[in-house]
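User: Teach me something about this protein's shape.
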Amino acid sequence: MRDTFTMSSVNWIGGAPQKSSLHVKLRHGPAYNEASLTEIGNGRYKVQLAQRDQGIAEGQYAVFYDETVCLGGGIIDGYVI
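Assistant: First, the predicted structure itself:
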């Protein structure tokens, strides 16, 4: 179980979010996780989840929302220990 990961190949629909506290979906299904987002350079971001999740896998997409509005997402490419 992890609560932090990094992502790359990020695409934002209307530009990068202006706030760092968002909701993220890591898999198909209804569940959202609260997360904070920090840009770490070279188009990569660090994502800190409010709760640990056992289903985080490299190559999987992380899609971000502000309430019900999809902001964009990226590909999980690593983990922060």
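Now, about its shape. The chain has no helices and six strands. The chain has one domain: 2-79. If you'd like, I can walk through any region in more detail.
User: That's plenty for now, thanks!
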